[in-house]
Amino acid sequence: MEKYRPYLRKMSKEELIACSLSDPPKFASKQAESFYSTHIDVLKNLTNLVLEYKIADLRKLLKPRYIKPNKDDIFKKLTTLKDKQPLPGKNKGYRGQILEKNLGLKNCSDLTDFVDGELKTVTIGQSNAITSVGHLLDEIIEAKVDFENSKLYEKIKNIVWAIYDKKGELIKNTMVSSCENTELQEKLIQDYNFIADEIRTRYKNRTELETINGPNDILQIRTKASKVRGSYIPLVYKGFKLKDKYMAFYYKANYIKNLISN
After folding, report:
1. Does domain 71-261 have CATH number 2.40.70.10?
2. Is 158 in contact with 118 (CB distance < 8 Å)?
3. Which of 59, 56, 72, 67 lies closest to 23 in space, CA to CA?
4. In 202-230, which positions are buried (b, 16+ CB within 10 angstroms) versus exposed (e)?
5. What is the DSSP pairing of strand 158-164 with strand 118-123?
6. Cis bond leading into 215, ω under 30°?
7. Count of alpha carbons within 13 Å of 57, Cβ hemisphere only?
8. Which of 58, 113, 116, 210 has the smallest set of CB atoms within 10 Å of its CB?
9. What is the DSSP string of 144-157?
10. Which residues contact 173 (CB under 8 A, 6 or more apart)?
11. pLDDT of res. 166
12. Regarding predicted confidence, which is higher, 161 or 28?
């Protein structure tokens, strides 16, 4: 046993038995689950296991797979953080990234942060970016997808908000489910349809896009871009330049301000 101790010290408890991150345990595969249940009674004597499996194989085999939480789990966990929520940093996305980490969310490029929704951090008085217009142009111009079947709706139907004041202090955590709020849902549909119609009209008439606000003052599109090698990348669809730089859908500042009183 002594000769294996240097190897075993390198293995975390999570990697070895895959049970410290969740209850009941969640495993990377059926093989890992079977391995765990078969050897649970002999974990104190690991000599045979080390002989059978290389340390790297054990780590890979027993590493718990990432399972996205749901909106209720995230909101419950967010409320327990209270004043421990992070202050903004020089990087505009720093606070959101740290908060995601504290909530156990994986920083990735998936459409939504958790199974059924999105986490948003925002400073009161500011608008909040939702997603790039470029990602939705096929849906809007070509397929003419309605709001409730759009990627935009999938992204915003359940939002967990962390709202801060200008000093970086937390004002409120709240959860908004537009799919459960008929009035809000109707306003979002109207805003989306207005903006989508305007995008289609501009594309058809070969005129450039500009800031477009929905009639209910909730959604808007406007430029959101950074220079690459000194220049902006234009927003192009099927050979036509809709804008000389990228654009995004936003929640408008007044909508976010109203969330505090609701």
Report:
1. no
2. yes
3. 67
4. bbeeeeebeebbbebebbbbbbbbeeeee
5. parallel
6. no
7. 8
8. 210
9. ---GGGSHHHHHHS
10. 75, 78, 79, 160, 161, 162, 163
11. 87
12. 161
How far is Cα 119 from Cα 53, in angstroms, rounded to an integer? 40
SS3 253: helix
- pLDDT tens string 167-222: 888 899 999 999 899 999 999 999 999 999 999 999 999 999 999 999 999 999 99
Distances (CA, A) of 221 to 39, 78, 144, 148: 57, 29, 17, 18
Confidence bin at 106 (pLDDT 50/70/90): confident
Whether this model's pTM surpasses 0.85:
no
Residue 144, phi-psi category: left (phi > 0), alpha (psi -120 to 50), beta (remainder)? left
Cα-Cα-Cα-Cα dihedral sign, residues 46, 49, 53, 59 = negative
Domain ranges of the chain: 2-62, 71-261
- Please state, in angstroms and as integers, the Cα–Cα distance from residue 182 to each residue in 120, 146, 215, 257, following that order: 21, 16, 17, 20
Q: Within a 13 Å sphere around the CA of 189, how many CA atoms are in the beta-carbon half?
A: 12
